[in-house]
């Protein structure tokens, strides 16, 4: 049996672009011959479900970078969430550093009041445009609109979570334009109770140490001990996935760090590198 684990953003789908048709064709072909395709993504399960419904894709999903799993035909299950004690420690650091953050929970995305971080949003937008051009402006505008108009905002996020302990936090995500400040945050936050890594431009994510792509893939593979496993990704949060699979594969738009450690490099996300690899090399 063959199992292909694939990241979504920047790998299966380029940000701001439609999913290449060849990628969807490849999933169907792989499943038709009895193999597995598994999304392994930092997205929350609701966003993945929406995408799969719109694109008519049906496969297993590891979501929240390993915080939960949703098998075909079954309800999603959260496995490793951020404990309240860890949440309190991290939020204290982020508030002291005046960094905008948001929580991916089983009841939506929560953040502090967006208007408190207007200067940070502007700096982030400038940095995104410098790095990504028009696509950076589009992403910045989307995020700005989301955090001001769609996100669940609270004046005191930690107090709200402490009075609602049944809410489960899959991950804490933050945006910070300054490279130096992100480095400081990594040093302050990384610990036995929290793993921190970069997932997109200017973006850091904090999760439970067991909520990594690597840990989730190893748990998944326990059911298929004889399977040949492939992991396809593009960013730092895919390094743990690469360590857990037999063959690690980077799309050509992946970061230099990822390309330096992978076993193979395939075509870019925008041009359907995932689908081309599967159809060209894994289909009988």
UniProtKB/TrEMBL annotation:
InterPro entries registered for this protein in UniProt: HAD-like_sf, HAD-SF_hydro_IIB, HAD_sf
Name of a matching Pfam family: Hydrolase_3
Leader sequence residues: none
One term of GO molecular function: phosphatase activity
A Gene Ontology term for the protein's cellular component: cytosol
Record protein name field: Cof-like hydrolase
């Amino acid at each position: 049996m063959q199992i292909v684990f694939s990241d979504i953003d920047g790998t299966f789908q380029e940000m701001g672009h439609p999913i290449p048709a060849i990628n969807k064709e490849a999933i169907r072909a792989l499943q038709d011959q009895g193999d597995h395709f598994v999304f392994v993504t930092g997205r929350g399960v609701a966003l993945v479900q929406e995408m799969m419904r719109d694109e008519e894709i049906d496969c297993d999903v590891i979501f929240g970078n390993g915080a939960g799993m949703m098998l075909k035909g079954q309800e999603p299950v959260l496995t490793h969430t951020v404990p309240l004690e860890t949440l309190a420690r991290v939020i204290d650091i982020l508030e002291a550093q005046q960094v905008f953050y948001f929580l991916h929970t089983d009841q939506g995305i929560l953040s502090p009041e967006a208007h408190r971080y207007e200067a940070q949003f502007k700096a982030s937008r400038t940095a995104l445009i410098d790095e990504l051009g028009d696509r950076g402006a589009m992403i910045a505008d989307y995020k700005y609109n989301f955090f001001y108009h769609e996100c669940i905002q609270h004046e005191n996020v930690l107090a709200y979570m402490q009075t609602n302990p049944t809410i489960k936090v899959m991950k804490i995500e933050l945006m910070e334009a300054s490279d130096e400040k992100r480095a400081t945050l990594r040093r302050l936050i990384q610990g036995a109770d929290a793993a921190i890594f970069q997932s997109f431009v200017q973006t850091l994510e904090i999760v439970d140490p067991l909520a990594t792509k690597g840990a989730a893939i190893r748990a998944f593979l326990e059911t298929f001990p004889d399977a040949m496993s492939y992991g396809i990704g593009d960013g730092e949060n895919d390094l743990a996935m690469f360590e857990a699979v037999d063959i690690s594969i980077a799309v050509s738009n992946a970061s230099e760090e990822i390309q330096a450690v992978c076993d193979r490099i395939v075509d870019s996300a925008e041009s359907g590198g995932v689908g081309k690899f599967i159809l060209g090399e894994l289909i009988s």
